[in-house]
Structures are given as C-alpha cells and as structure tokens.
Predict the structure.
Amino acid sequence: MHTANKSHIAEAGIQYFARLYEVEREVKDLDADERHRIRQARGRPIAEARHAWMIAQRLKVPVGSATAKALNYSLKRWVAPTRYLDDGKLPADNNWVENQIRPVAVGRGNWLLAGSLRAGQRAAAVMSLIQSAKLNGHDPYAYLKDVLTRLPTHLNSRIDELLPHLWAPAR
C-alpha cells in the first residue's frame, strides 16, 4: 500500500515492524529464555504502541477504505502475530515456512500450463517428492536418481521404503 499510494499510515506501520525486527535480529542467536526476556522488555512495548497506534488510525480513516480494511484485518487477528512475544522458542514470523513452500506455490501456477490434468498431477507429485527429499536432508537429484533406478525391481510390498522420510541410498 505504501509504495503504490505513498500512504503515511502505511509508512508509519512499516516503521513499527522495522523496530520489532531490529529486536529480533539482536535476539536470534540467544537461547529461548533470554530471547523471551528481551522480547518482553523491548519488543512488547513496541507491539503495544503499534496496537494503540492502529486503533487510533482506524478511527481516523473512512469506513470501507482500503486502509480501514487493512487495519480491521490486523486488529481482528492481533493475538496470533504477537504470540511469539510470549514464547522465546517461537519465531517472530513464518518466513522459513513460506520459503519452503514457495516452489510448490509457483509450481501450482505452472501446472496450469502442464497440458492436461494428468500431466499437472504428475508434476505436482514430482514436486512433492523433491520438496520432501529436501526437507529430509537429501539431495533431490541423488534421491530421484536412486529411486527411479530401483523402482522397476523394488517389491511393491516395500514401496514405502522409497519415500523420502524412510529412504536410504542403495548400497
């Protein structure tokens, strides 16, 4: 909203996030108890100031405007994005997960151009295997090469051994 409309409200909101992320950069390598302590001491006041600021801004903007809708959305969901302040083990955001699923989300758009429903389903299955292999610490190329080499002679009753979370390279 800020870059498109040069909104001063959006710019101020971004500044609150910048301050919260500054705290997170400082605590990222600390143990959970120390991270929690610092979040309470430094992050919580910023979050509370942001919350009060959002309520004040909501009262100033026209009902039905894009800014009002954005503020309403955030205020209704206030508890979830601030939960990390109460637990030093929780990340401040879900960026790691977003980065893990990005290839699948991009693929979903690409699968529309796969040529047929069946081709799209196959592409989705292969992408799922690749991402699962990555999440289980495997090199996707080595995993797929090994599985595709073994598959023709592998017993159907033991096919689950080839799933990424159970797979071990052939000896």
Remarks:
- The radius of gyration is 23 Å.
- The longest helix spans residues 32-60.
- The chain has a mean pLDDT of 90.
